[in-house]
């Protein structure tokens, strides 16, 4: 127990130590103070052809156009990979529905995978297709967060910046150098990086085994740093080539959250009030610690049905690797579902019912516990708007944030946006059940089967990408419906928050008075956390009661459904 808590404490310390200077650096990048790649930046901006400042509509239009082109290119690569080079295994092109799902998945930073990477995709598809989108989808999310921060801080302005410039700077100055350094570290620590197809090995029993190879280190670096999560191999970071040892495991977990955490400090600098960034960091941190505590307790307690033939002190080791144990598996599970990462080093389908529920809730809250690269911050700002509105109702004052009045337009947009996740999870999940497609895809009957379905649609709508591995998703119905959920979860959040930022940008901040409700102190942080939990509980508690909670009760009663 003490060793586990020490490991968790060291991880938290390393994360905070890395995030604070990175947050300062990213603020410098997006305010134009960092220019060491200026010639390359000018070349790329020249190709984009759009240099003017953009209002929220133009910014959103550029974002949608860029992602539409990215989708078309990736879809074509996946469908035609059998006619392209760097395909030493001779893989066929993907079916239309799998190519559709995968292309949507990677442009939305979800990286959901209805396939096994090493048995389905060529090296060209992995590198030119998936790895490219790992950079661009993360850069798009970061650009949106920066634009929103500008809108919140502006005084009677019409513009939020330039999407092409923000995306270019995020890629050149943050993601690309970070991924290169991380890839070199991973390569030195034992990850493969080759264009070879596979090698044949002889096992200790004398049998022959084919080991898949490829450009692994470069893809894993940006999959983690960009909160992408799509694995080169089917079992993701539980594969020894994708996560060779304890050091790569620690660096991977650090990379998952370092940019999302740093963005809270970047936000404080961009709006000119570091206290606001620290308040968001604290609120997210409270939720993260609570999630870790709950999941760790569930996995350390273990499965009561196993107590008769295994040592309960070892915790629930089903689906986990001995080399990582309970605490590193739990840390990874919390980090990957708090961020929109989705990579795994243990199988979430083997978590205890309550452990699996924690992972689900992290995603159902809208990935706002630090969240993805940039978009987690914007999701949290929607809850900030809702919280100041509720606070205003309680004290009988017009709600304000950063000195700007939060009026009906902003509240309506925020409230409607918070319906996106319930629609994606509950409505699309209900359609899957009503049409019979859920019943044919789940591995288990009863509450756990419902948990598998709810987890899948929570993961897609939350742009996470992790899965309860027992669910068969590679069907025309689920590939299409999950693709719809991913689009809804990505752009259903981004467009309204840009509209809110555009509205707030035109307003003039009022000076703080004795009656102004501060949005950076412990009272506001507490109210923000409670608002998030109440909204989440009221929305998803019924389905959680029928799934993981019912399964947990059945274990306590000593039987299964």
Q: Which helices and strands occur, and which strands form pairs?
A:
Elements: H1 2-30, H2 38-48, H3 56-79, H4 96-107, H5 117-120, H6 123-153, H7 163-188, E1 198-202, E2 208-212, H8 216-225, H9 246-270, H10 274-301, H11 325-338, H12 353-364, H13 375-395, E3 400-401, E4 404-405, H14 408-417, H15 420-434, H16 437-441, H17 446-461, H18 476-505, H19 522-556
Antiparallel strand pairs: 1-2, 3-4
Helix pairs in contact: 1-9, 1-11, 2-7, 3-4, 3-6, 3-18, 4-18, 6-7, 6-8, 6-18, 7-8, 8-9, 9-10, 9-11, 10-11, 10-12, 10-19, 11-12, 12-17, 12-19, 13-14, 13-19, 14-18, 15-17, 15-18, 17-18, 17-19
What does this 3D model show about the protein?
The chain is an all-alpha fold. The chain is built from 19 helices and 4 strands. The strands form 2 sheets. The protein has a two-stranded antiparallel ribbon. Strands 3-4 form a two-stranded antiparallel ribbon. A hairpin with a 5-residue loop joins β1 and β2. The radius of gyration is 23 Å and the shape is globular. The mean pLDDT is 90.
